[in-house]
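Hello,

Our lab assistant flagged a job as stuck in the queue for most of the afternoon. It eventually completed. Since we weren't sure the result was trustworthy after the delay, we are filing this so someone can double-check. Below is the sequence as submitted and the structure that was eventually returned. Let us know if re-running is recommended.
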Amino acid sequence: MPLTLLILFDLVIAVLSALVAEFVRFGHLNDRLPFDLITIQALLAVILALICGVYTPWRGRPLAERLGAVLLAWSLSFACIIGYLFLTKTTADHSRLWFALWIGVALFTAVNGRFVLYRLLMSLRRQGRNTRSVLVIGNGSNFQQVCRDFAEGNSFGYRLAAIIKHTDNEQTCSGLEKILTEGKSYDECWLCLPLEQSDLVQPVMYAIRHRTMDIRYMPGMRDMPLLNHNVTMIGGFYSLDISCSPMDGANRIVKRMEDLLIGSMILLLIVPVLLIVALAVKLSSPGPILFKQFRHGADGKRIKVYKFRSMSVHQEENGTVTQAAKGDSRVTRVGAFLRRTSLDELPQFFNVLQGRMSIVGPRPHALAHNEYYKDLVESYMKRHKVKPGITGLAQVRGYRGETDTLDKMQKRVECDLEYINNWSMWLDLRIIIWTVFKGFVNRNAY
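-- returned structure --
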C-alpha cells in the first residue's frame, strides 16, 4: 500500500477517534473540540510511526512485531500530549473521560485497522495478487526449506517464478543466462547458498548487472546460534554480525531511559512494601536484611546484586553455591513466602537505578553456576551480552526457580537468547505486563 495512503489512514484515525470519544462522552459533537490538540497528536502519531518503522514494508515480517510497533508509536504520541498538557498546565481544560476515551478508541482502531489491512493483503497474496516475483538459486537444506515455505499459495507476498538448483558455477551461470534471455521480469533474486559456496555470488551479480531486481543472500544460518544478526559497515568493510549485543548506540540510551523512568516509578510505588518486608526479614531471624552476592553483569563483568535475605545465615565450603531445594532447612518461614512471591527480588530496583541491572533481561545466575553451565549449554555466556534483569522472557514463560536438570537450564537460556535477539521497547513492556499478571508467584521456589 502506498505510503501516502497509510499516512492518510493514520491521520483519519486520529481525528475520527477524537470525534467518537466526544460523541460518547457528551452525546453530541462540541463546537469547542480542541482541534489544535488533535492536530498535534495526529502529526506526532505519523512522525513516531515513521521512527518506529510502522511504514516500512510488512511483507514477510511477523505480525506481532509489526502491530507492536503500531501500538508503541501511538502510545508514545499520547504520552507526548500528556506531557505537553502537564507542562502548559492545561490538563484541567479538557475532560479526563473524553481524553481517556480518545486514547482507548485511537489505540484500538490503529492496531485493529492495521490487523484488518494485513489480513486483507494476506488473502490477496494467496490469490497471487500483490506479490513480488522471485528468481531463486541455491542448494542444500536452506534452499529446500525456502522452496517449501514459499510454494504456490503462500501469504508472504513472494512468488517463486523461477528456480535454479546449483550443482556447480558453470551449470548455474548457464541456466541463469538461459532464464534471463527469455525476457521475463523478476523483482528479486535470492541466493540460498551455504557460506562455503559464496564464490557464486559475484558471477551471479555480474550476470544480472543489467537488471534492477533486488538481490538477497540467504546463507542458511538458522541452525546457528545467531545473536542480533545484522549487517554493519566497519572501516569500509561489510560485516555480517553473527553474535553482537543489541544494546549499542541509540538502543543503549533507549534501554537506559526506560529503566530509569519505569524503575523510578515502580520504586516509588513499592516503598511501603519494601519497608514491611525489611521489618519481617529482620524480625524472622538474626542477620542482615539484604543478601548481597556477586553475579555476572553485561559483558561478563562482576556486579553486586541485592535481594532480601530469605535464608538463615550460613557458610558454604569451597565457594560453592547450593541452590535451594524442596524442604531446604536453610530457608526461613518468611523467606519461603518471599521466594514464592518473588518479593525477595524487589531490592534489585536499586541495582537498576545504579545501572548494574535492567528491569527486563536474563536473570543473573550465581558465579559458580555460570562456570558449571557454560560448557554444558551451547551459547550460555551470550546471555551476558546485555544487563541482567529483574524479570525476563524465561520467567514469564515459567522457566524459573531451581534448575535441577540440564534441560531446564537449556530452556531458560533459549528464552534469554530469544529475548536478546528480538529486543525492543515493546517487548520489554509486554514482559513487564506479563510479570504483573503471572510472573510474581513462583510455584517452583522453595
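-- support follow-up --
The delay was a queue issue, not a problem with the job. The result is valid. Residues 3-126 form one domain. The beta strands are 132-138, 158-165, 188-192, 214-217, 231-234, 237-240, 290-296, 302-308, 358-360, 389-391.
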